[in-house]
Amino acid sequence: MNFLDILITKTKNKISFDIYRKETTSDIIIPNDSCHPTEQKLAAIRYFTNRINTYSLDHTEKQTETNVVKQIVGNNKFDTSILSRINGEKTKRERDSQKGRWAKFTYCGKETRLVMKLFKNTNVKVVCRTKNNLGKLLKPQNIPKLDKYKKNGIYQLECLTCHKKYTGQPGRPFRVRYCEHYNFKYSNNRSTFTQHIINEGHSFGPVNEIMKVIHYERKEKMLDTLEKFYICRETKNGNQINDRLTYRAIQYSKQ
């Protein structure tokens, strides 16, 4: 039976234990040439070593697991002699396990190590942290949302009742042009779209429901071509609200 990282085997006489690894487990740990504090580089190796020494493994399983750990250590550019050093450090830590104060530093290279040496003969124990971890790298960026209606270009207004469309290209921001359409009750200069709303008794909606931004562009000749294209397309589909004279002028310009 596999339980966490332990393989439990029951025989007639006893229960034996071994280290269990999934088939998808890789031998990747923080490599020796990575810009991380040494403590973090050795964390996985210390874990592997501690597991060998604390789990109730038979001599054969313990030797097999030691060989696996040596292979992992070598594949990540460490010297395999580091396992003996870690075992010695564990004995020293157990001997010197006295309580003390802790200080935390952000690791930035050799300079951090020089600062840490200053605390060597004190009762302050130093640990390091890094900023190049997955939590920082995968953190969603707070990108400010820009108001698309502050730009200008080609837009379409869609009647919420009959779903016919009006195409325009203001030299002003889209939101300003929407307000001009919206204030149709108080304006003498009504657009074709607002005149359609009044004549047909249809409903007028908010900007995010009736206005669709088609193309962002400065007030240039390119806008005239784009506007004509979208007017022709909607006229062909029978959805056009624009002035019929506009469409005739486009047909005339084609000829």
What's the gist of this structure?
With 255 residues, this protein is α+β, with helices and mostly antiparallel strands. 42% of the residues lie in helices and 16% in strands. It folds into three domains: 2-97, no CATH class; 98-143, no CATH class; 148-254, GIY-YIG endonuclease, CATH 3.40.1440.10.
Question: How would you describe this structure to a colleague?
Answer:
By secondary structure, the protein is α+β, with helices and mostly antiparallel strands. The chain folds into 3 domains: 2-97, no CATH class; 98-143, no CATH class; 148-254, GIY-YIG endonuclease, CATH 3.40.1440.10. It has 11 helices and 8 strands. It has a 3-stranded antiparallel β-sheet with strand order 1-2-3. Strands 7-6-8 form a 3-stranded antiparallel β-sheet. A hairpin with a 2-residue loop joins strand 1 and strand 2 (6-10). Helix 2 (43-54) runs antiparallel to helix 3 (59-75). The longest helix is centred in the N-terminal third of the chain and has 17 residues, at 59-75.
Describe the secondary-structure layout:
Blueprint: E1 2-3, E2 6-10, E3 15-19, H1 38-41, H2 43-54, H3 59-75, H4 82-95, E4 101-106, H5 110-117, E5 124-129, H6 134-137, E6 153-158, E7 165-168, H7 174-182, H8 192-200, H9 207-210, E8 211-216, H10 221-236, H11 244-254
Parallel strand pairs: 4-5
Antiparallel strand pairs: 1-2, 2-3, 6-7, 6-8
Helix pairs in contact: 2-3
- Low-pLDDT windows of residues: none
Globally, the shape reads elongated
Question: In the CATH scheme, what's the topology name of the largest domain?
Answer: GIY-YIG endonuclease
Number of strands: 8
